[in-house]
Automatic annotation (TrEMBL), chain A:
It comes from the Eukaryota. The keyword Zinc does not apply. This is Cysteine desulfurase. Keywords: Iron, Iron-sulfur, Metal-binding, Molybdenum cofactor biosynthesis, Pyridoxal phosphate, Transferase. It holds the Pfam family Aminotran_5. NCBIfam families: IscS (TIGR02006), PRK02948.1 (NF002806), PRK14012.1 (NF010611). Its EC number is 2.8.1.7. GO terms for cellular component: mitochondrial [2Fe-2S] assembly complex; nucleus. GO terms for biological process: [2Fe-2S] cluster assembly; [4Fe-4S] cluster assembly; Mo-molybdopterin cofactor biosynthetic process. Residues 2-361 form the Aminotransferase class V domain. It comes from Colobus angolensis palliatus. It is an enzyme of class 2 (transferase). InterPro entries: Aminotrans_V_dom (IPR000192), Aminotrans_V_PyrdxlP_BS (IPR020578), Cys_deSase_IscS (IPR010240), Cysteine_dSase (IPR016454), PyrdxlP-dep_Trfase (IPR015424), PyrdxlP-dep_Trfase_major (IPR015421), PyrdxlP-dep_Trfase_small (IPR015422). Monomer. Homodimer. Oligomer. Interacts with ISCU. Component of the cysteine desulfurase complex composed of NFS1 and LYRM4; this complex contributes to the activation of cysteine desulfurase activity. Interacts with MOCS3.
UniProtKB/TrEMBL annotation, chain B:
Keywords: Iron, Metal-binding, Transit peptide. One of its GO terms (cellular component) is mitochondrial [2Fe-2S] assembly complex. Pfam families: NifU_N. Mitochondrial scaffold protein, of the core iron-sulfur cluster (ISC) assembly complex, that provides the structural architecture on which the [2Fe-2S] clusters are assembled. The core iron-sulfur cluster (ISC) assembly complex is involved in the de novo synthesis of a [2Fe-2S] cluster, the first step of the mitochondrial iron-sulfur protein biogenesis. This process is initiated by the cysteine desulfurase complex (NFS1:LYRM4:NDUFAB1) that produces persulfide which is delivered on the scaffold protein ISCU in a FXN-dependent manner. One of its GO terms (biological process) is [4Fe-4S] cluster assembly. CDD domains: IscU_like. GO terms for molecular function: iron ion binding; iron-sulfur cluster binding. Gene3D superfamilies: 3.90.1010.10. This is Iron-sulfur cluster assembly enzyme ISCU. InterPro entries: ISCU, NIF_FeS_clus_asmbl_NifU_N. The keyword Nucleotide-binding does not apply. Residues 17-122 form the NIF system FeS cluster assembly NifU N-terminal domain. Belongs to the NifU family.
Length: 397, 138
């Protein structure tokens, strides 16, 4: 139940990929023989499939190695191209690490970046965004759906603001593409990052959408033979992009049904947990929320110990012990979660292939182990005795 | 039980929980509370929820200075729980002076805590402080 981390290949995607892993192994850039031509045809078909999922023109889709590369291209590529006149970028505090890290590396190059805070709901304040835009702002980057708490940002409104202020708008849509309807023209998106392995496609492939009208110019990060309109040199991996294309086409067909089914399962999970356990908090706005990503904090129980208890379920936590540092998740910190609750959070991911039995099993085990761990918790004991934990002077070590 | 099983059972990446840690975590010894108002009981509470680690350790000592019972409660990760459980097991039957000689590194070694869990090994320091403070209180 960790679909935000990755998803299994949809069997239809595997079917589409296999011929290109076995017989049709040509390099799509070989212009002189049939191996090349058939690979190229497959690559262009895949390009059309990706484009049609987001309402774009196939000429606006560039294949990359994944959303991390796409984010790098979008942020560094746009910033560097316009650097003579524009030195400022805007992003949020809850973005994926690759976006934040790209911004940080640009700051080292002399750019200025504003990291917008988010409200308790996890959503940015549109007025703060408007106020942050300067005459020398080249790009605003806000992710569509957050990978830790599932919160949906008001993309169409942000697109409207950026378009009226003549600032390019990039969105990291890795967790949103194929799951919620997206249209780059309706939402006035100029650049978008897409990830293959988040939508039941293969790992190692993604795409970036770059608007042609009006044209967004991007300085290429990777030099080479000029493939992908010079924006991303390197042989395009035919089997992987065929997989990405197939995943997008399947997602377009399944989107409505998946969303309904996942919403019901999410509802089931949340209701059943909350009615059996007190002091459980859902992180992130429950309304502007993608149902398949549920982040819950179980007060007085530490996240990693709960994960250890739920050992036959694949889950993830915002607790420090599961990351290399002692810091709990920066996303939870950005939405103002108390530090002890941040250590107590678990992310449940529900996807296309998650079954009701799996949800029920997870809920049952979760309730059982939270109760057990609370019995072992000095904090729970103190709260039961009526002690206000905020009044205690904890020792440091 | 093969040593690889704990790694697959746990969602923590690239971290092999020694089966002793898993054992202490799944079957913790001495979870609970002693009467904190009793004169023979020493209680130590260390850590902070903001750090993701809080441990309460209680010991019951007889007139001769020997620890006859120990209980713990922990808010923390699997290693933290295992360390606390082991600490309570070790101090039982020892005198207070003997128990004070238990070092953080002894516990870490017994549970085979990997060096990658450096911050957790600091928790062994916490075990110690908790042990000591509970004995001081006593």
């Amino acid at each position: 139940m960790d679909v935000q981390a990755t998803t299994p290949l949809d069997p239809r995607v595997l079917d589409a990929m296999l011929p290109y892993l076995i017989n049709y192994y040509g390099n799509p850039h070989s212009r002189t023989h049939a191996y090349g031509w058939e690979s190229e045809a497959a690559m262009e078909r895949a390009r059309q499939q990706v484009a049609s999922l987001i309402g774009a023109d196939p000429r606006e889709i560039i294949f990359t190695s994944g959303a991390t590369e796409s984010n790098n291209i979008a942020i560094k590529g746009v910033a560097r191209f316009y650097r003579s006149r524009k030195k400022h970028l805007i992003t949020t505090q809850t973005e994926h690490k690759c976006v934040l890290d790209s911004c940080r590396s640009l700051e080292a190059e002399g750019f200025q970046v504003t990291y917008l805070p988010v409200q308790k709901s996890g959503i940015i304040d549109l007025k703060e965004l408007e106020a942050a835009i300067q005459p020398d702002t080249s790009l605003v980057s806000v992710m569509t759906v957050n990978n830790e708490i599932g919160v949906k940002q008001p993309i169409a409104e942000i697109g409207q603001i950026c378009s009226s202020r003549k600032v390019y708008f990039h969105t990291d849509a890795a967790q949103a593409v194929g799951k919620i309807p997206l249209n780059v023209n309706d939402m006035k998106i100029d650049l978008m990052s897409i990830s293959g392995h988040k939508i039941y496609g293969p790992k190692g492939v993604g795409a970036i959408y770059i608007r042609r009208r009006p044209r967004v110019r991007v300085e290429a990060l990777q030099s080479g033979g000029g493939q992908e309109r010079g924006m991303r040199s390197g042989t395009v991996p035919t089997p992987l992009v065929v997989g990405l294309g197939a995943a997008c086409e399947v997602a377009q067909q399944e989107m409505e049904y998946d969303h309904k089914r996942i919403s019901k399962l999410a509802e089931r999970l949340i209701q059943n947990i909350m009615k059996s356990l007190p002091d459980v908090v859902m992180n992130g706005d429950p309304e502007h929320h993608y149902p398949g990503c549920i982040n819950l904090s179980f007060a007085y129980v530490e996240g990693e110990s709960l994960l250890m208890a739920l050992k036959d379920v694949a889950l993830s936590s915002g607790s420090a012990c599961t990351s290399a540092s002692l810091e709990p998740s920066y996303v939870l910190r950005a939405i103002g979660t108390d530090e002890d609750l941040a250590h107590s959070s678990i992310r449940f991911g529900i996807g296309r292939f998650t079954t009701e039995e799996e949800v029920d099993y997870t809920v049952e085990k979760c309730i059982q182990h939270v109760k057990r761990l609370r019995e072992m918790s000095p904090l729970w004991e103190m709260v039961q005795d009526g002690i206000d934990l905020k009044s205690i002077k904890w020792t440091q070590h | 039980r093969s040593p690889r099983l704990p790694a697959r059972e746990l969602s923590a990446p690239a971290r092999l929980y020694h089966k002793k840690v898993v054992d202490h975590y799944e079957n913790p010894r001495n979870v609970g509370s002693l009467d904190k108002t009793s004169k023979n009981v020493g209680t130590g509470l260390v850590g902070a929820p903001a750090c993701g680690d809080v441990m309460k350790l209680q010991i019951q000592v007889d007139e001769k200075g020997k620890i006859v019972d120990a209980r713990f409660k922990t808010f923390g990760c699997g290693s933290a729980i295992a360390s606390s459980s082991l600490a309570t097991e070790w101090v039982k039957g020892k005198t207070v002076e003997e128990a004070l000689t238990i070092k953080n590194t002894d516990i870490a070694k017994e549970l085979c805590l990997p060096p990658v869990k450096l911050h957790c090994s600091r928790k062994e320091g916490m075990r110690n402080i908790s042990l000591n403070s509970s004995m001081e209180v006593y």
